[in-house]
């Protein structure tokens, strides 16, 4: 159960290159953080996994199945999504938002009527407790919660269908430092419990170093680093973030100079 990017390129309709030629693998159960400057291609990469963007070249392979319009129906229930701005229904309750994570597995008619099977309702309640929201929160409107609490709802929703993969696009961008740590620890714990691979884009290097098993760094739509936090600490961050960085620097590093 892994996520594989094989020479993935994405050119948008206006000609902008979102991804140039990206290849790497995230093994099952790994927490993989995607780093890179603004515009490096992090969101584009995540969107290529859940079909919100389709690669112009190459392919994304989820557990051996290439992501295409035809396979998305089968793959979507196995991919949980956590968003930067939570993407919840603000006027609906915590419980309603969490159970909405099961929509890919429920017929449209039943979903419209709010008829979720008892097992799914029980799963939703258990998840809400597990992410640290007490019973008193079940019927609260999401709009009345803090950002950190809303992201806990988003995490519970993402795990409704026991996903094999979790995509998190800057999940702590709007949260304070301690809440960010708590939220990433929660995503990591839930994913490890499940054995799910996580692909999580971040701008906070300290958090990447703290939580990642694997770090992939993008620059101008290309992979400029793929390895452990320790290896990145040895290598430094110039090749990812410095505007003036150029290739000879990485060549020197490659020969250990
Ligand atoms: N719908 C689109 N149409 C045209 N270009 C796009 C589109 N979406 C993204 N891009 C471009 O693709 C490149 C990569 O964007 P992307 O959003 O993937 O970067 P990012 O690393 O997630 O940035 P940030 O950290 O700011 O969110 C950028 O040049 C961006 O302007």
From TrEMBL:
**Pfam families, A to Z:** ABC_tran
The terms under GO molecular function for this entry are:
ABC-type phosphonate transporter activity; ATP binding; ATP hydrolysis activity
UniProt xrefs under SMART domains = AAA
What GO cellular component term, any one, is given?
membrane
Show where the ABC transporter domain sits. Answer: 3-245
Question: Which keywords label this protein?
Answer: ATP-binding, Cell membrane, Membrane, Nucleotide-binding, Translocase, Transport
Q: Which InterPro entries match?
A: AAA+_ATPase, ABC_transporter-like_ATP-bd, ABC_transporter-like_CS, ABC_transpr_PhnC, MetN_ABC_transporter-like, P-loop_NTPase
Against SUPFAM superfamilies, the record matches this protein to: P-loop containing nucleoside triphosphate hydrolases
Q: Which PANTHER family match?
A: AMINO ACID IMPORT ATP-BINDING PROTEIN, PHOSPHONATES IMPORT ATP-BINDING PROTEIN PHNC
Protein's recorded name = ATP-binding cassette domain-containing protein
- Species of origin reads Sandarakinorhabdus fusca
Q: Give the source lineage, highest ranks first.
A: Bacteria, Pseudomonadati, Pseudomonadota, Alphaproteobacteria, Sphingomonadales
């Amino acid at each position: 159960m892994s996520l594989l990017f094989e020479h993935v390129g994405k050119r948008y309709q206006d000609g902008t290159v979102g991804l140039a030629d990206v290849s790497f693998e995230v093994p099952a159960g790994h927490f993989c953080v995607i780093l890179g400057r603004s515009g490096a291609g992090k969101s584009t990469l995540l969107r290529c996994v859940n079909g919100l963007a389709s690669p112009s070249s190459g392919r994304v392979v989820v557990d051996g199945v290439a992501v295409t319009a035809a396979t998305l129906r089968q793959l979507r229930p196995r991919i949980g999504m956590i968003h930067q701005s939570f993407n919840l229904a603000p006027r609906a309750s915590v419980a309603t938002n969490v159970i909405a994570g099961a929509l890919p597995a429920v017929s449209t008619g039943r979903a419209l009527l709010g008829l979720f099977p008892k097992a799914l309702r029980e799963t939703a309640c258990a998840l809400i407790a597990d992410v640290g929201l007490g019973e008193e929160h079940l019927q609260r409107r999401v709009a009345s919660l803090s950002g950190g609490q809303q992201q806990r709802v988003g995490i519970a929703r993402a795990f409704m269908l026991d996903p094999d993969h979790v995509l998190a696009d800057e999940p702590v961008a709007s949260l304070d430092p301690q809440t960010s740590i708590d939220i990433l620890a929660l995503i990591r714990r839930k994913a490890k419990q499940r054995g799910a691979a996580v692909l999580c884009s971040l701008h906070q290097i300290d958090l990447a170093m703290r939580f990642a098993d694997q770090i992939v760094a993008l620059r101008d739509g290309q992979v400029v680093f793929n390895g452990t936090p320790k290896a990145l600490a040895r290598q430094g961050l110039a090749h990812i973030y410095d505007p003036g960085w150029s290739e000879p620097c990485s060549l020197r590093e490659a020969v250990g100079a």
